[in-house]
Every structure is written in C-alpha cells, then in structure tokens.
Design brief:
By secondary structure, this protein is an alpha+beta fold. It has one domain: Alpha-Beta Complex (Aspartate Aminotransferase, domain 1). 39% of the residues lie in helices and 21% in strands. It has 3 helices and 5 strands. It has helices at residues 5-13, 19-32, 96-118; strands spanning 37-41, 44-48, 52-56, 64-68, 89-93. The chain has a 5-stranded antiparallel sheet with strand order 1-2-3-4-5, with helices on one face. It starts with a helix and ends with a helix. The model has no long low-confidence stretch (mean pLDDT 95).
C-alpha cells in the first residue's frame, strides 16, 4: 500500500469527528486496490486511477463522504452510490461499523471504475 505523504500530512491536521472513519476508508481502498493512487486535490484527499475517482468532502461531521466525480458513468447497481445529477455521485459512511457493512459495495464501485478505465 503506497500512501501519499501529502495525504498523511492532511490527515494529521484534520480536526473532525469522522477522522477515524476517513482513515479507515482510505486504508480499505489502498490496501485492497494497489493500482489506486491518492493525492490532495481541491483541498481534500482524492483517489486516482486514470483520472480522478473520488474525493472526500472534509466538512461533513456526521459521516465520511466520498464524491465520485463521474459516478454516473460507473456501471452497476450500487444502492449507496447516491445522487441523480448528470455526473457526480456520493457515498456516505456514518461509522466504522457502517464502513464494515458497506466495504464490499465500496470496493466494487472502485473495481468497476478500474474496469471501465481499462476497457
């Protein structure tokens, strides 16, 4: 798992009650999908694979929120990938237990993005 030191530094100063969930979500993605990179973009951690996949919304205090920039393009049925706009979709996690429950779906979303970009 290759962690970006810029994201480490961002997390070190992240003062939010959802910090443990954001950290666990980050680890889940990076541990499972070594082809996914990360960076700080738009003043927040962003996952990258052949383009921007998703960025954390750092101001949320009741959930960790990932915005999938082109979520509408990701093939498949994902009940927790929310939104009906032209492009973006969001994925929210309210606790570490909620992350455990949603982890398979979250990783499936990332895998579908990777497959789409590799096609």
């Amino acid at each position: 798992m290759a962690k970006n030191p810029d994201v480490d530094a961002w997390l070190a100063t992240y003062d939010n009650p959802m910090k443990p969930v954001v950290s666990a979500l980050r680890n889940a993605v990076l541990e499972t999908l070594p082809e996914v990179d990360e960076a700080i973009k738009w003043q927040a951690p962003t996952f990258i694979y052949k383009g921007n996949i998703a960025s954390f919304f750092p101001k949320a205090k009741k959930h960790a929120s990932l915005m999938f920039h082109k979520g509408a393009e990701i093939p498949g049925d994902y009940p927790n990938l929310l939104g009906d706009g032209k492009e973006a979709r969001s994925f929210k996690v309210t606790s570490l237990e909620d992350l455990d429950a949603k982890r398979p779906e979250l990783l499936s979303i990332f895998k579908a993005w990777i497959a789409l970009k590799d096609a």
